[in-house]
């Protein structure tokens, strides 16, 4: 069985194609293809409330390319989801309808709560009886989820994202709202562990030079990486640290968002599982198709 997931983010768009096999009762997920294209739809939308003509054409071309790959891999089922940029743009629905009419490709525009739910589906093995704050920082929004005893007790999406933060487009009231949400919904008597998802925390983790088999960062290490990044210019982060241009600018505001949420929760540790929306989409696709026998 072959499945495809497309995550249309505010800073980049990702396609993953996965092959699902079964052997001796064990289900295996094998990544066949992964593509990340740096199309920053959020920069248009957060400034002008619409996707520009230039990026509209690029987006349509990209969806054509992804649809070709989905067809070439003979995918059995797929899901394409758009997040902050598409849901906030005044012409997002129009573009989605145009793509469906021209390509037959179905794009779902999901809200912040749906986005959080999908990401949470990929976190099952990381959540136990302890208390957790899950922080997912995207280009346009940050999704927070609080868990205790394996139960989600609170969830909220905030218009706090790495692309928005580039031009100081986040009102102080929104930051306060995020801090209040965390303070009101966690028990500070309990030790809170954070779980960080998103492309930027994965890159921060990589830059921290972790020891083998370690999948966590502490607050001080994230702050250390942030200070290290800020010691370079944008051009130096691209050329000396080998960061992609669309990562080299947003990684600094993203770092500050993770740290702000951790500080509000008085948490010193963050697990970095390297999962995201596309992994949640794969879980939905598998459940939808598991009656079909894997190869």
From TrEMBL:
Q: Which InterPro entries match?
A: ATPase_NBD, GppA/Ppx_hydrolase, Ppx_GppA_N
Q: Which Gene3D superfamilies match?
A: 3.30.420.40, Exopolyphosphatase. Domain 2
Q: Where is the signal peptide?
A: none
Question: Source organism's superkingdom?
Answer: Bacteria
* Record-annotated Ppx/GppA phosphatase N-terminal domain positions: 34-282
Give any Pfam family that matches: Ppx-GppA
Protein name per the record: Ppx/GppA phosphatase family protein
Q: Which organism is it from?
A: Shivajiella indica
